[in-house]
């Protein structure tokens, strides 16, 4: 079982306790491990297409610094890499060296259907029923399996696609997608994952940043100790 110990990140005049979600293989996890809160939830998300990066950028399961993570989540399932080339077997082997490590596999829209093109659930009632049935099945199995979910931080997405209080009660942790909040679709250059609002933010962008995104989930009755903030470690090829 994971501990409820969390890292505290101060947002202006409020302190919101939130564990850290690490996207990719983050050396920043070392800093978290140097604190007294060594049992915090630190989720390292691994994309198996990283093996196709050229040169030193190539990264496989064996390169994951598992000692820095409490959880490791594989984002995409690839039949060739994960089945034929023993990717799943190599993934589960990490538990031999790190027995306390929890391993997870992400299921996207192709598995959980009934999503719109932006990933929000078109029928939030049916999605809630799905999570309820999944929780019942996991508890019946009695293997200590966890259910987590990556979620948006835009208010209209939450209102249209999620029964927030009910889902947060069912889930072990809620991974806030607090990255890629700005992009080429915005029509202007900006920080893609701002912590706070900027003076030039207008309309929906005034609340679309890490601080208000997490506070929104908290205000919609999701326990703060279940919220996991996404920390981006991304590289985009210059145009």
TrEMBL record:
InterPro entries: Chitinase_II/V-like_cat, GH, Glyco_hydro18_cat, Glycosyl_Hydrlase_18. It comes from the Eukaryota. Pfam families: Glyco_hydro_18. One of its GO terms (cellular component) is extracellular region. Keywords: Signal. GO terms for biological process: carbohydrate metabolic process; chitin catabolic process. GO terms for molecular function: chitin binding; chitinase activity. Residues 1-32 form the signal peptide. Gene3D superfamilies: Glycosidases (3.20.20.80). Residues 1-239 form the GH18 domain. This is GH18 domain-containing protein. It comes from Glossina austeni (Savannah tsetse fly).
